Backbone:
């Protein structure tokens, strides 16, 4: 952003066009027939994806209006895991049509009030379309398949969707209990899940666990390291080599004492940071396995699954008080790499192992599974919300409800009516974009959807051929909360941008 101040109509149009440009960037990725984007950084590293939030996260956006659009995509990701492209496309269309209203002399506050009024009508239209809330396995499978359509996993749709439902059921809809690791080699069909924790780490000394499993293990978790003295913030002047040797001797003495004490306290040591080679060697000789340089998420998961506390100092842990009965800790080979698996009875954490041919494919698989798991867990966690027919059906019927309200309310001014109709037109952008990306005429699809009964949306079959039909019967369904969040967030960002009439550079 430049230091030049923009105000009034100039500021409004600047924000609107920046937001619309963001929406247009991801519009072609929408739907089962959506295209991919290749993102290339300065080092030549590439990401090929059609995941909306991933694309927007990687964009170099400086305009504040554009950043607001990226923000709603990230919010959608946090709340619902899916719909990150739809919310941006919808918000962008609301703003694109509002520009025409502004140029016709309609005050932005009039547009804002009309949009807020329309969103209430649209949400009521969505509620009227809710279908089964049985939380049956069939519904969950349909939700998973819908979320996975158009993504890298689509060639293995049945297997991928079934895997998502199995994992979601195992964690009772709690996405925080799911961990995903990826390993190149094999295919998606080789993916599986375990009730327990699989760490993307091998033992510091692999020989300690050769053909051995640690059962009923004493476990010690350290939030720190055992690497010796930290001299990073210390300035020392050593004039005698003997002084240096004395420091080294003291360091080894300290590490030796630590290793001895730790060997009395545990069978397996998990450490957040590094562990000195001498400590690893000593502990291995005592039959104690070490797993070091773990991520914080690994430590949190270990705490959750084992019930053990994470200590800053090993001296805080009491001897023989950390036994995890029924635990089995061992090396597990996946592909050509070794991992550490931690299995306990009634595990509260589930690990999903995703396989694929290449790293790029695996990255897309992981994004697809993350989205689908999130949507299924969202559906399982909602009470009584049920599902909506997919393929733009819900938004299309919400548009019909808003348009009917605009036509039926006699007390509306001509300007208010125009704003409501613009909002109704905006809601049709999602099915229109899905149609366009599938090579269909978007106008024909939109007009056909307007006259169709409830639950009719645009269905794209396995051959990429689209047709307007009852998408619920075709198994294309979405959680009600997902669509509700898309409408709410898109309206909020559009009205927020419309309220801005001044762009001023601030200090710092």
Residues:
């Amino acid at each position: 952003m430049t230091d030049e101040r923009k105000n009034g109509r100039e500021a409004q149009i600047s924000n609107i066009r920046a937001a619309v440009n963001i929406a247009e960037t991801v519009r072609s990725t929408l739907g089962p027939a959506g295209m991919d984007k290749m993102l290339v950084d300065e080092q030549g590293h590439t990401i090929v994806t059609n995941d909306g939030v991933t694309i927007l996260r990687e964009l170099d956006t400086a305009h504040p209006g554009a950043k607001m659009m990226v923000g709603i995509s990230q919010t959608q990701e946090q709340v619902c895991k899916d719909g990150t492209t739809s919310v941006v496309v919808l918000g962008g269309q609301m703003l694109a049509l509002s520009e025409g209203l502004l140029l016709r002399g309609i005050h932005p506050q009039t547009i804002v009030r009309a949009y807020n009024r329309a969103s209430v009508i649209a949400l009521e239209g969505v509620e009227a379309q809710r279908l089964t809330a049985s939380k049956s396995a069939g519904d969950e499978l349909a939700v998973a398949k819908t979320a996975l359509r158009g993504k890298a996993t689509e060639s293995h749709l049945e297997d991928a969707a079934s895997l998502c439902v199995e994992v979601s059921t195992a964690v009772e809809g709690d996405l925080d209990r799911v961990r995903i690791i990826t390993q190149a080699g094999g295919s998606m069909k080789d993916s599986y899940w375990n009730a327990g924790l699989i760490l993307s780490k091998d033992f510091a000394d692999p020989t300690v666990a050769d053909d051995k499993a640690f059962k009923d293990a004493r476990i010690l978790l350290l939030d720190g390291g055992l690497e010796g003295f930290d001299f990073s913030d210390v300035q020392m002047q050593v004039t005698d080599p003997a002084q240096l040797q004395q420091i080294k001797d003291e360091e080894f003495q300290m590490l030796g004492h630590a290793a001895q004490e730790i060997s009395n306290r545990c069978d397996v040591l998990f450490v957040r940071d590094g562990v000195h080679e001498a400590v690893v060697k000593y502990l291995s000789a005592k039959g104690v396995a070490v797993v070091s340089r773990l991520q914080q998420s690994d430590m949190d998961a270990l705490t959750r699954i084992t019930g053990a506390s994470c200590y800053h100092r090993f001296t805080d842990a009491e001897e023989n008080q950390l036994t995890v009965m029924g635990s089995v800790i061992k090396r597990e080979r996946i592909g050509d790499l070794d991992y550490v698996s931690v299995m306990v009875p009634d595990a509260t954490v589930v690990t999903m192992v995703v396989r694929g041919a290449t790293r790029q494919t695996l990255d897309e698989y992981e994004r697809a599974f993350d989205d689908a798991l999130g949507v299924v867990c969202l559906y399982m966690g909602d009470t009584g919300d049920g599902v909506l027919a997919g393929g733009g059906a819900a938004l299309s019927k919400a548009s019909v409800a808003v348009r009917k309200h605009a036509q039926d309310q006699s007390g509306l001014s001509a300007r208010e009516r125009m704003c409501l109709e613009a909002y109704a037109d905006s809601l049709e952008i999602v099915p229109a974009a899905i149609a366009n990306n599938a090579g269909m005429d978007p106008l024909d699809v939109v007009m056909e959807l307007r006259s169709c009964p409830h639950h009719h949306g645009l269905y794209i079959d396995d051959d990429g051929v689209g047709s307007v039909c009852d998408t619920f019967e075709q198994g294309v369904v979405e959680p009600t909360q997902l669509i509700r969040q898309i409408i709410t967030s898109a309206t909020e960002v559009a009205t927020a941008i419309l309220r801005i009439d001044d762009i001023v550079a601030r200090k710092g």
